[in-house]
């Protein structure tokens, strides 16, 4: 039982880190020169990091919630 309890937080951490990385990779396709002011490189990098965290966290929570609720679905029909 304690192995299952310890698995959920580990899965959440790995999921969050994975999706933050994926969102950071996806944001590299955006051309920041068109929307960021000149000489604001550090601020642009911070913006990309924060956007990656926000998008990755939201997507990760979506998949974790789907996983959680799909696990509860069989109890609905029993």
UniProtKB/TrEMBL annotation:
Keywords: Membrane, Transmembrane, Transmembrane helix. The chain crosses the membrane at residues 6-27, 47-69. InterPro entries: DUF1146. It comes from the Bacteria. Pfam families: DUF1146 (PF06612). This is DUF1146 family protein. The lineage of its organism: Bacteria, Bacillati, Bacillota, Bacilli, Bacillales.
């Amino acid at each position: 039982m304690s192995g299952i309890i310890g698995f959920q937080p580990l899965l959440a951490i790995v999921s969050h880190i994975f999706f933050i990385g994926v969102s950071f990779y996806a944001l590299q396709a955006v051309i920041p020169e068109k929307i960021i002011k000149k000489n604001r490189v550090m601020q642009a990098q911070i913006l990309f990091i924060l956007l990656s965290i926000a998008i990755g966290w939201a997507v990760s929570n979506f998949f974790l919630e789907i996983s959680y609720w799909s696990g509860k679905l069989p109890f609905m029909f029993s």
